[in-house]
Amino acid sequence: MRYLTDLSPLSSRDSSFPSRVTPGKKKPLYTPLSPHTAYGNAMIGIFRKTMTTLATAATTAPASAVVPRVSIPTNGVDYRNKIVLAPMVRSGELPSRLLALKYGADLVWGPETIDRAMIGAERRVNPRNGTIEFTRMPSNGGRPNKSLKESVIYRIDPAREKGRLVYQIGTASPELAVQAARVVAADVSGIDVNSGCPKPFSTSGGMGAALLRTPDLLVSILEALVKEVGTPFQIGISVKIRILSKPEETEALVSRLVKTGITGLTVHCRTTPMRPRERAIRDQLPMVARICHDAGVACVMNGDVTSRDQGLALMAEYGVDGAMIATSAETNASCFRTNEDGGVAPWRDVVYEYMRFCMESENRLGNTKYLLNMLIPGKDKEFKDAKLSKTYLDICRALKFEDLLPAAMRVDELLGLDEKWEAAPDTESQAEPKSKAVQNAKVSEAARAAGGGAVRTKTPSPAVHAGGPIRRSSAPQPTKVVQVDAEQPAVEAAITAAQTQAPSQVTA
Ligand SMILES: Cc1cc2nc3c(=O)[nH]c(=O)nc-3n(C[C@H](O)[C@H](O)[C@H](O)COP(=O)(O)O)c2cc1C
């Protein structure tokens, strides 16, 4: 078994990542004609001509003959013909999203983030890996003696998520929704409103699925976002709902939502009281799709979609525009790969890639372990070992990812986990003092915590956008790793260096 070894630093181009224009080798919904044959070329010519004619007709024909389509804003993304990663609290952090993209997801939704959490967050660029981090100080729960350490509440990889990331917001207020969305609007392609979460922490505040019962409020949130964020930032606004138990109720709700200016609507085919393990109900889907299409809004289905191939088949069967995958991707993100391209990969391959993304992203260990628990089958010995691990080094050792050990040590040092190493690392660098760059990074973190204000030796992160239109062209483009000094450790550099040696051949 060979591991994929084409990872490069977060901030550099990764040719193994499907580009937005040519999304990998994934099969599109409708198999295109071969561009390599004369017949194919001729047919493509006819197709283009027909489309041009249709477009012209659309501008001149009477309204009744035109199939409407809400236009996609310049910095937005069309949800049509896409198989996408669902929003998932905890399971949808940056490493999981990169993993899904790696295996062919067309778009990724970030985890629901409550409006108040993002309002007032500081935006900065991590100089070691180029990721954008939104941070804030914890409220500290009124405990004056507890040391304050800022926490990263949202991370974005501007290079690899560009044009593919939808930010999901939890809100019950048009004003707060707008304030929060403005903080991230320049860095994402769309803002989605969570109107389906059935958990009490969400519904008790009037958010999530509670909004299904307060359609006036939901409509006002979407309209405010379209006007105050979608239009000035030129990104799409969308909503994710659940079906209501009576089809006519769903119909009435969707009919209102599609008139708010949204570009997409995702329908989770379960009612609010339904448990995740209950089978999705799809008989309302064609009705929802029809209402969306009549208004020119893309309709994405969700619920028991388990793979790209199945998603494409369901899209054709139910006449929807896209399909969203949650729990299957949580268990094995290679479900986004078609059977033709290899299908679902062995869990060890997926976990290896996941660990690399976690370390590159400097992901919080607790979160890394959370998804590891999903990715590693419970009966395997590695499951228990990884679960008990307290550091990245321990995890990589337990999984026998020898070539990742240097990177694991670096990230442990950066995150202050090295004190928990079970035994002295058995690598050449064990006798060395912490690298200068790791020390620099730690000093920066300490200075930041002590005095606020990021310490940077080079390019400063752009300030958090207070609001107002920001053109994407002038939006921050932190796609380059900013070298703090020549010895800048950059976890990814360690990974890349390790990758130049033969990766360990661990069999599944
Ligand atoms: C761990 C987890 C976290 C979730 N978090 C969110 C969330 O933040 N926002 C949301 O709209 N739905 C959330 N969901 C629901 C999923 O997006 C999705 O609607 C649901 O799991 C059904 O899809 P599936 O049948 O493919 O699992 C979450 C689901 C899981 C399993």
From TrEMBL:
**Required co-factors:** FMN
- Tell me the Gene3D superfamilies matching this sequence: Aldolase class I (3.20.20.70)
The answer, when asked if Oxidoreductase is one of the entry's keywords, is: yes
Organism in which the protein naturally occurs = Penicillium roqueforti (strain FM164)
Identification of the protein by name:
tRNA-dihydrouridine synthase
What's a BP term from Gene Ontology annotated to this protein?
mRNA processing
| Ranges where the DUS-like FMN-binding domain occurs | 85-359
- What ranges does the record give for the region Disordered, renumbered to this chain? 1-28, 423-486
What's an example GO cellular component term for this entry?
Answer: cytoplasm
- Drop me one GO molecular function for this one: flavin adenine dinucleotide binding
Question: Which intervals carry biased composition (Low complexity)?
Answer: 1-20
User: Which spans are transmembrane here?
Assistant: none
Instruction: Enumerate the catalysed reactions.
Output: a 5,6-dihydrouridine in mRNA + NAD(+) = a uridine in mRNA + NADH + H(+); a 5,6-dihydrouridine in mRNA + NADP(+) = a uridine in mRNA + NADPH + H(+)
What's this protein's function? Catalyzes the synthesis of dihydrouridine, a modified base found in the D-loop of most tRNAs. Specifically modifies U47 in cytoplasmic tRNAs. Catalyzes the synthesis of dihydrouridine in some mRNAs, thereby affecting their translation.
Q: Which InterPro entries match?
A: Aldolase_TIM, DUS-like_FMN-bd, tRNA-DUS-like, tRNA_hU_synthase_CS
Ranges annotated as biased composition (Polar residues): 427-442
Keyword Cytoplasm assigned to the entry: answer is no
